[in-house]
Amino acid sequence: MIGWINSGGTVMWLILAGGFMALVIFLERFFHLHRAQIKIADFLNGITTNLTRGNDLEAISICDQTPGPAAHLVHTALLHRRDSKDELVKAVQQAGLREIPRLERHMNLLITLAQILPMLGLLGTVLGLLHILTALQAGSPLAEIGTLSGGLWMALLTTAAGLSTGIPAYAGYHFLVSRIESIALDMEETAGEIIYFLTHSSAGERHEP
Fold first, then answer.
1. Assign residue 106 a region: left if phi > 0, alpha if psi is -120 to 50, beta otherwise?
2. Are residues 197 and 203 in contact, defined by beta-carbon separation less than 8 angstroms?
């Protein structure tokens, strides 16, 4: 394996480094998003039940103990539950806007790597072909097979490595995007339901300023 990597030259090491970075980003985002996505129905049921019973502190405590942006939105809503409806909605919207960049952290880097890695493979192919042409020119009219095969190995190995790392990185990016969109929908649903509950139920009565 090391021999193949060395045959690919410097470009091969760059591809492997980029592929490793893409893998680390994917795994970090995957576990972060997995933890951030909760069962919205059960969570909201626990919150509204406590609010109906007057256990405001318990409801806030549930939000603090629950991971994910949806819980943070509800926590924000509870802290502003005695504000006017417009102020409550604005506070929740602003909290949502702050959560989105956290969900999308490092995603631009991941898609950049997914696009660059195959191009690095193509660069390795070109360099390998140039190596072959240089060897042919230098050894003309007789060129050693070993010299020519070195360039051919570089071309093939870097192409294979670039595609083998770029394709999974691209697929992983779109998988994570789908998870982010799902969480964003959960956030929207959660925000709408908690705002409706606080503004239409007796548990959500507020003292207008």
1. left
2. yes
Helix (H, G, I), strand (E, B) or coil at 201: coil
Which token pair is 50?
């406590």
Q: Which distant-in-sequence residues (6+ apart) come within 8 Å of 151 by Cβ?
A: 128, 129, 130, 131, 132, 134, 135
Tell me if 170 is assigned to some domain. Answer: yes
More confident residue, 118 or 37: 118
Residue 5 CA, chain-centre distance (Å), reads 29
**Is 209 inside any structural domain?**
no
- Tell whether 58 is covered by a domain: yes
Is residue 119 assigned to a domain?
Answer: yes
Domains in the chain: how many in total?
1
Q: What is the pLDDT of residues 68-98, one digit of tens each?
A: 899 999 999 998 888 888 899 999 999 999 9
Nearest one of 24, 49, 15 to 201, comparing CA atoms: 49
**Does residue 209 have a cis bond before it (omega within 30 degrees)?**
no
Rounded Cα gap, residues 181 and 189, in angstroms: 12
Which residue's structure tokens are 């799902």? 182
Instruction: Tell me the residue range of the domain where 58 lies.
Output: 2-204
How much is the average pLDDT of 18-44?
A: 93
Q: How many other C-beta atoms lie within 10 A of the C-beta of residue 201? A: 12
State the pTM of this model: 0.82
